[in-house]
Amino acid sequence: MYVCVCRAVTENEVHDCIAAGATSARQVRDTTGAGSDCASCVRKICAMLKRSEDLIPTA
Ligand code: FES
To answer: Candidates 3.90.1010.10, 1.10.10.1100, 1.10.10.10, 1.25.40.10; correct CATH number of 2-55?
Structure first.
């Protein structure tokens, strides 16, 4: 499923990018291009980043 329609970036590509160490929507954009056009996908990318942060144990 596409997260970014403008740049045809899929959810898997964003997940891979986060798994590779991206911690901000800007880093995801620089790597995948997602969010570099209309930017309507940025909120979705931020939510994915937040979810991944929540999965990382802090203790
Ligand atoms: S949907 Fe991602 S830049 Fe437009």
So the answer is: 1.10.10.1100
